[in-house]
Amino acid sequence: MADVEQNAAVPDGSSNGSDAVNGTAGRFVSSAEGTALAYGSLLLMALLPIFFGALRSVGCSKSKNASDMPETITSRDAARFPIIASCTLFGLYLFFKIFSQEYINLLLSMYFFVLGILALSHTMSPFMCRVFPAQLPNKQYQLLFTQGSGESKEEIVNYEFDTKDLICLGISSVVGVWYVLKKHWIANNLFGLAFALNGVELLHLNTVSTGCILLGGLFVYDVFWVFGTNVMVTVAKSFEAPIKLVFPQDLLEKGLGASNFAMLGLGDIVIPGIFIALLLRFDVSLKKNTRTYFYTSFLAYIFGLGLTIFVMHTFKHAQPALLYLVPACVGFPVLLALFKGELTEMFREDKNAKTSAVWEHFKLIEGKTKAVCQICDLKLAYHNSTSSLKNHSSVSSMPLVYCWSKKKKQTAFILAQPNNNLSVLKVLLLKDLCVLYH
Fold this sequence. Notes:
zinc-finger; alpha+beta; 13 strands; Znf_C2H2_sf
């Protein structure tokens, strides 16, 4: 993960970005007030996406909108993530060593321009729903791209949106153009906050054990790549993208044209954030009308990040934030669960989480509507005929729906209750059958 740094220079239109991390560290000494303002602002900006992303993750898990469905991280994903992240980091390092930094960053700017607009638009959508005037018409639109015809017809893109979404998209596009042209730190932070909030909201750990595996692996990853090599620092200096939050330490002296920044990587927000969001959902599942584990982990994050900043400021050296955040965010909630006698319940595998590991869109061959289906980690039986299904008396009265999974390139016979609205469905594992129900 990217780390907490100080005295970093971020391009604002007058810089080519070659000093993106420490290029001016030796030429500027920040005032005590400027340093305190920068650190305090970074801390506040880190807390916002975690707090609101966690709250939105609860609603996201109950959403009936296919576009808002979360991606679930399993224990296997968590174990592989540090390896994938290391390969990606080292690959970027080699790219910047071999190819021209200018062209790579141009390609990255275009990529994050599109990605940032979509992320910021999604972030603004709930707010726009509240402030959108009731007097104005809110028209519905659908963007649909298909391939083939008849039974082989496939949906490539199916996106539904309305007038509010178009307004959000327009505002986000202005920010995107501002970022591409000027690389201004405010535009960078708007995109960064949007990425972080969407990450906390839409990335769901399936169990606390998975969260411990992920955070533990990235703890080692962060420490190794910061203290063991110069790879992360080199990539951070060369990489021009809104993957970090920055705040100027010379804001009081130079205003919005400031160029010497303290920074915090988005990974140090999103990774602990999805664990904190998991604990909030665990609080909700306990049905005690308390948010003890959420607030404990949230305060632990504040403590860990504050300690990171203190150590970095004391030793004048970039710090791997996860070195302090992981023990705090995992340790405090676990100790609390041990004290309350809920440790077993906290680490108990959630069977419901298994049925939401992967969300997939199915095209109904015998029907015009679409079903959104959860495919669990368990191996579901796919049948080539209806005979084996109809032999089950418990479900023989239910109509059979033949579905094709574009993602898995497989077909499945799925049972549905009569007269159901197949636009939004859940999945129940019934013996070896995948049964859809409301």
